[in-house]
Design a protein that fits this description.
Pfam family, one: ATP_bind_3
GO molecular function, one term: ATP binding
CATH superfamily of the largest domain: HUPs
Organism: Halobacillus litoralis
Number of strands: 22
Catalytic activity: cytidine(34) in tRNA(Ile2) + L-lysine + ATP = lysidine(34) in tRNA(Ile2) + AMP + diphosphate + H(+)
Number of domains: 3
Largest sheet: 6 strands, mixed
Protein name: tRNA(Ile)-lysidine synthase
């Protein structure tokens, strides 16, 4: 086992000479074996080792005895010891978390504090190869998303240093043999034999069968985990090209927008990866409620023939498609309020979003443009009205016989559904629609040889 661990540490560059290493020690076989191995490593590599032990207060006197046991071992092996007790049951009530999650949270609070106190380089943990195999199998059962199946990392950033797991290359049986060879005793937690917790059930019923099929199953799972992580790093790097086409808001209320057409030019694997990176941004990586079903819903939305659609994701996130525009936002859409303002030439109408519609007489028939409309004054009944749309709205278009539904104009112009109910429409006193601002101009064809003309101009809030 020594050779396997030495090779594993070297391969993954887990330790450097003169590292200050905190070791999480529960008193169980795995953590005691890890502590003993690191102590023996001091003979060939200068290391500063501090053992950390946490009593979770869940097994009364027995868990207190675990703490005393670890302290005695540390005294025997010349290792500095720091122990603490935490109240898991009280924290469960405060936080609403389950027993295992609450215990883990408090344990890591203590570890982080000690990393900062000692300015340590590494926090070593005793997870082994069988733990890795169990974790991967549990993740496969729970999720079909590749991003959610990755196993236990060999190392990862933590506090001011790293968490390292030197024993991931060896099995629980090898650890037991190591302890027997060195005549080392360890404490056994009786809750490890209970099957109330999912991991224990996998440990007792699933892993033994897999080991029967392949005694090196734990090695295969570790190799698989390393390969998957390497490939995923590469895919995430490539997905950054997708994210360059995405707008991430810098406002307090987070939202993301992108062009569906541009997004879909990338390979499907990168689309999926970018989708999960976007969710990491929006959920601040707290997206455990997202399943492969949400991913499928999102991908179907991109390919849907309907130009307007909305998906509801966990925690109030809405994914909206409006023609080519895709928006992901937690901001609850407010019901649009209808408006109607009367105004005369020489006046301006202030719209709710801060935009303006200005009316004035003019003798010049200059080129109009998209946001300027010249009307034949002889066919306009004052005062003017700027309002939101109404059911059944129709308008006569210049150069066309008959009329057209405003609803169809919005569809033809690919106006997002969320904007249609607040789009400004200018009419005269009789209700004749003169202008669907920025989209279509109505009214009788102007005789440019006579005047004056009524000039309508729209200025959005960025221009005012």
């Amino acid at each position: 086992m020594d050779r396997i661990i030495h090779t594993f540490i070297s391969k993954h560059q887990l330790l450097e000479p003169n590292d200050k290493v905190l070791v999480a020690v529960s008193g169980g076989p795995d953590s005691i074996a890890l502590l003993h191995f690191l102590c023996s490593l001091r003979k060939t590599m200068p290391l500063k080792i501090i053992a950390l032990s946490v009593d979770h207060g869940l097994r009364g006197q027995e868990s207190m005895e675990d703490l005393d046991f670890v302290e005695n071992i540390c005294n025997k092996w010349d290792v500095e010891f720091v122990g603490t007790s935490v109240d898991v049951n009280s924290y469960k009530e405060e936080s609403g978390k389950g027993t295992q999650e609450a215990a883990r949270t408090l344990r890591y609070f203590f570890f982080e504090k000690m990393m900062n106190t000692y300015q340590a380089d590494k926090l070593a943990m005793g997870h082994h190869g069988d733990d890795q195999a169990e974790t991967i199998m549990m993740q496969l059962v729970r999720s079909a998303r590749p991003e959610a199946v990755h196993g236990i990392p060999v190392k990862r950033p933590f506090a001011n240093g790293e968490i390292i797991r030197p024993l991931l290359g060896v099995s629980k049986a090898q650890i037991a043999s190591y302890l027997a060879t060195h005549h080392i005793e360890a404490r056994i937690d009786p809750t490890n034999e209970e099957t109330d917790y999912t991991r224990n059930a996998f440990r007792r019923h699933v892993l033994p069968f897999m080991k029967e099929q392949n005694p090196k199953f734990h090695q295969h799972m570790q190799a698989w985990s390393e390969r998957v992580r390497d490939e995923r790093v590469y895919i995430r790097e490539q997905a950054q090209e997708v994210l360059k086409t995405v707008h991430f808001s810098s406002n307090v209320e987070k939202f993301v927008q992108f062009s569906n057409r541009s997004f879909k030019t990338f390979p499907l694997a990168l689309q999926r990866t970018a989708f999960h990176l976007i969710l990491n941004y929006l959920y601040m990586k707290q997206n455990e409620d997202i399943s492969y079903l949400h991913e499928e819903m999102f991908m179907n939305l991109l390919s849907d023939e309907k130009p307007n659609a909305t998906l509801d994701f966990p925690q109030g996130l809405k994914v909206t498609r409006a023609y080519d525009e895709i928006t992901l936002s937690f901001h609850a859409a407010q019901e649009p309020e209808a408006f109607s303002y009367t105004f005369q030439p020489g006046e301006e109408a202030n719209l709710p979003d801060g935009s303006l519609v200005i009316a004035e007489w003019t003798e010049e028939c200059e080129s109009a443009g998209r946001y300027v409309h010249l009307c034949d004054s002889h066919h306009v009944k004052l005062p003017l009205v700027v309002r939101t749309r109404k059911d059944g709205d129709r308008m006569r278009l210049k150069g066309m016989r008959g009329s057209k539904k405003v609803k169809d104009i919005f569809i033809d112009q690919k106006v997002p559904a969320r904007l249609r109910d607040t789009w400004p429409i200018v009419t005269d006193q009789t209700g004749e629609i003169l202008w669907v601002v920025g989209l279509k101009k109505g009214g009788v064809l102007i005789d440019l040889s006579s005047g004056p003309w009524l000039r309508l101009q729209y200025k959005n809030k960025a221009d005012t």
